[in-house]
Amino acid sequence: MIRLILADDEPIIIKGLRKLMDWESFGMEIVGHAYDGNELMQLIEDLNPDLVISDISMPHRSGIDIIKEIKQRGLPVKVIFISAYQEFSYARDAVAFGAIDYLVKPVVKMQLESVLGKAISLITEHNEEQKRKGKLQLLERKSRHEEMQEALIQLTDGNLSPNTKSFQETDAQLQGPRYSVMIVEVERLTEETARWTEKEKKLIEFAIGNMLQELITDTGIGYVFMKRDRHVCVLSHGEPEEPFMLAEDMQKKIEIFLKLKVSASLSRPASGLMKLADAYREAEQAMEMKYFVGLNRVLGFVPQEQQHSFDKELYELQWEVIRGMTAKAWSEVQAALAGWLDTIKNETYGNRSLAVSTCFSSMSFIIQELFKSGVRLSERALDKRELQQLLASFETFDWMSTEIIGLFEKTYNEMDSDSGNKDKIVLAKIKQYIDRHYSEEITLESMASMAFMNPYYFSSFFKKHTKQNFKQYVTEVRMRHAADMLSLTDLMVYEIADKVGYNNARHFSDMFKKMYGKLPIDYRQDTKKTTE
User: Fold this and answer.
1) Taking the model in full, what pTM does it have?
2) If phi over 0 gives left and psi between -120 and 50 gives alpha, with beta otherwise, what is residue 214?
């Protein structure tokens, strides 16, 4: 709708103009009216109209004064003047300053309709022009962003010559005198976040990118771009501590506004754009440190000491674990494992892949020697591929250590026992509990605790024996009970949902349809038809 203001120092004139036209049929909405020039100018500022129809002679400010100010300010509002006098000088000045037309009172409807048609054309043309300009500006910004991103990727790869136009434009945008590279990574702290879909990952990437854009690019501090599926920021700054202050502020704001935790790694300040490749490598190495020191931190680059061979020390620690296991002395095994893991962490500090590979090869040796000693081990303990995938999946060394200790404890407890019969008893106990408590909150962790297993092992254990994952099994138990209730009771769908452990009836209906191919209400109706 075109926004319209009427102005005249005689209220009866404004009333007459309101009734003269069917304004809505012209796509117009009267948003205000004024009785003097000052009031009109204030309404123009407050209401941002598209069109003003005003008497040219009004108290405080004349129509000519109003249109002059509109022109000086560059406001897009169009003006139609009316007057009780057909004075040539007024008409000439009005048109000179951009008025659409000058009408003499009493206003003739046909003449006003003709002028309104002209006004609509001019306003529509102006709006279309603004849209075109907006699109062009958007395309230009997008093009500049892509060019800048490509230039920074090449700079951080060490592939951009200072003689190129791209380098010179980047140098003009980022004036230093110091430059630091920051990498930002979102943490996946729970089982749910570890299973984000590609769409969810894209939305999270977009949200974090927008916030970094506001905090860094829009404020002129630096530039943000994507490289190898990670957010990278090139910061232009003066004092060396400024990047750390910015990273901490960014981290807090992402947690407050996006409810996400991120780690940020920083290079040392570089003295020129040509050193950004080294700075990027430092930021990458700094990010590796979160595996050892913990998540959700700001990590600065620290040069690593040269690593030395610790094969002999590691070999002795491995045999301490083996001797404790075969002697059935768990306290000795715990002490040996603690020393063994501490040694690996200290000697591989700063190199995640080396830490994981060392743990894997060391565990493989221990398992092999236990097997040679006649210790009865489960198939899972002997599956090297599964072990390698497991060790590589942990976000930190401490998480991996906890899982490794849990695996050895499980192996220790299973040694020389009839594990097959024991597994059946444990599985029967778990199934009975689920069947009795399906209406309550049942989690993988709580069932693992009941079975005296860690969650990861319990998940594999359950799937191995039931050919289903745990969550799927619990869902099917609940859906079977729901189907019985639909067939045998008159309970409402939302009541049944609550009784089988769902506080959201819509989610329950979706899960029911996924299993039975129809919504609960349709299932009930079809069941009744078959029994009639």
Assistant:
1) 0.55
2) alpha
